[in-house]
């Protein structure tokens, strides 16, 4: 399984960015994909998650109303639309996919993409 993030960059406060995560390899059809982020000196935190059907999503309180997670299963790609960016959104953003199969948790991560928001 390989996850490749793209779309990060340097933007100003109030701007928007869209991150993409392209997945490849043998991924179980029933899974949960998510975006996490890690700022310097802080622990990695969940930003948003989405089920395989896209029917259920969840968000960190800090991004509710500003970020939208989505996925296109036909393209094996997940997205994170980030609007009204703030300086505190600055972090490395990671793509993650998880599923249970044969009583085992399969857990994969991308390499991360840097998002820097200047105030």
Sequence-ordered SSE layout with sheet pairings:
Elements: E1 2-6, E2 9-12, E3 17-24, E4 32-38, E5 45-51, E6 57-59, E7 67-72, E8 77-82, E9 91-101, E10 104-109, E11 113-118
Parallel strand pairs: 2-11
Antiparallel strand pairs: 1-3, 3-8, 4-5, 4-9, 5-6, 7-8, 9-10, 9-11
Structure commentary:
By secondary structure, the chain is mainly β. The chain is 0% helix and 58% strand. It has strands at residues 2-6, 9-12, 17-24, 32-38, 45-51, 57-59, 67-72, 77-82, 91-101, 104-109, 113-118. Strands 2, 4, 5, 6, 9, 10 and 11 form a seven-stranded mixed β-sheet that branches. A four-stranded antiparallel β-sheet has the order 1-3-8-7, with no helix packed on it. Strand 5 and strand 6 form a beta hairpin. The radius of gyration is 14 Å and the shape is globular.
Q: Can you tag this structure with a few keywords?
A:
11 strands; 119 residues; seven-stranded mixed beta sheet; four-stranded antiparallel beta sheet; 0% helix; mainly beta
Taken as a percent bin, the fraction of beta residues is over 45%
Give the C-alpha Rg.
Answer: 14 Å
**Biggest sheet, open or closed, and with what strands and sense?**
7 strands, mixed
Tell me the distance between the termini: 37 Å
Helix content: under 10%
Q: Which H/E pattern describes the elements?
A: EEEEEEEEEEE
Mean pLDDT: 96
Shape: globular
